[in-house]
Specification:
mainly alpha; DNA polymerase, domain 1; hpI Integrase, Chain A; 2 domains; 3-stranded antiparallel β-sheet; 13 helices
């Protein structure tokens, strides 16, 4: 019979969650795992912690319509919690093994979200949406440019410091950009977006600190924008999320001839398979790569 303990016996539950997420390096990952674990603890109540409970929780998430990738994040957080509890002697190793064996159950749908990709016409319309006669519009156009033209995540857009915007090999780049997994990379900025940046910096009179700021009474102020604000601005002008603009960037440059390797580097993906999902790459039999080789 599976040995188990209720969550209430794992020392103070919230203290255990805090210790678990403290082991994570990325701030974004800590926030994501923290929300996932709090959600699980609120759902589980007095249920016995083990394979059956975690499986039931995963099933409940699937029934809510969550994507498979999202459910896997929840499971990863729960498994990390179980590892911490085991390390502290609050959970038996056999229970840990059973929890780590939980996988996403299948239902009517695999829960995979393909996301949205903007067409070239939609991209042009989005770029023209902000009113550039206002300081807010100048800022918003730069935000759209950094997501559509550089493929940046909203957290990355919000974090950009004036000192990171430098000239390299004759062009503007975002240098020393820290992405997921604390990965460091440099992202080239297209000429049109470089002009948007110059326009914003001149109009806002910002000389140091975060590039993007709040606007009130025609003036830029504050220490920066939140990721939620970035999301709201993008949604307002495009009707989609910042991540959809990131996907649109990836597919657009791929269809224009950029290699998956270079797109992967620009986006900061650890695996080229992730990049393939972003561009929705499919094998082209009629114009296969082998046709390019003269043999």
């Amino acid at each position: 019979m599976e040995q188990s303990k209720t969550l209430a016996t794992m020392s103070p539950e919230r203290q255990l969650v805090a210790k678990t997420i403290a082991t994570l390096g990325s701030v974004n990952t800590r926030l994501t795992y923290g929300r996932a674990l709090n959600s699980f603890l609120n759902w589980s109540g007095d249920r016995t912690f083990g394979y059956a409970t975690v499986t039931a929780y995963a099933t409940s998430l699937r029934e809510k319509g969550l994507a498979k990738a999202t459910i896997n994040i929840h499971l990863a957080a729960i498994k990390l919690l179980a590892e911490m509890a085991t390390g502290l002697g609050a959970l038996d190793a056999t229970v840990l093994a059973s929890v780590k064996a939980v996988r996403v159950t299948r239902g009517g749908s695999d829960g995979h979200r393909t996301g949205h990709w903007l067409t070239s016409e939609q991209i042009k319309a989005a770029r023209c949406s902000p009113d550039e006669t206002t300081l807010v519009g100048v800022r918003d156009k730069l935000i759209l440019g950094l997501t559509l033209g550089c493929g940046l995540r909203r957290a990355e857009v919000a974090s950009i410091d004036v000192g990171q915007m430098i000239q390299l090999n004759g062009r503007l780049v975002v240098s020393n950009l820290i992405g997921k997994g604390e990965k460091l990379r440099t992202v080239p900025v297209p000429l049109a977006v470089a002009k948007d940046y110059d326009a914003w910096m001149m109009a806002s009179n910002i000389s140091e600190g975060r590039v993007l700021r709040r606007v009130r009474d025609g003036r830029a102020y504050g220490s920066g924008l939140t990721t939620q604000t970035i999301y709201d601005i993008v949604r307002k002008h495009t009707g989609v999320s910042p991540h959809d603009l990131r996907r649109s960037f990836a597919r657009g440059v791929f269809e224009a001839g950029a290699s998956l390797e270079q797109i992967q580097i620009t986006l900061g993906h650890s695996s080229v398979k992730t990049t393939e999902r972003y561009v929705s790459a499919r094998q082209d039999i009629s114009q296969a790569p082998c046709d390019l080789l003269e043999i």
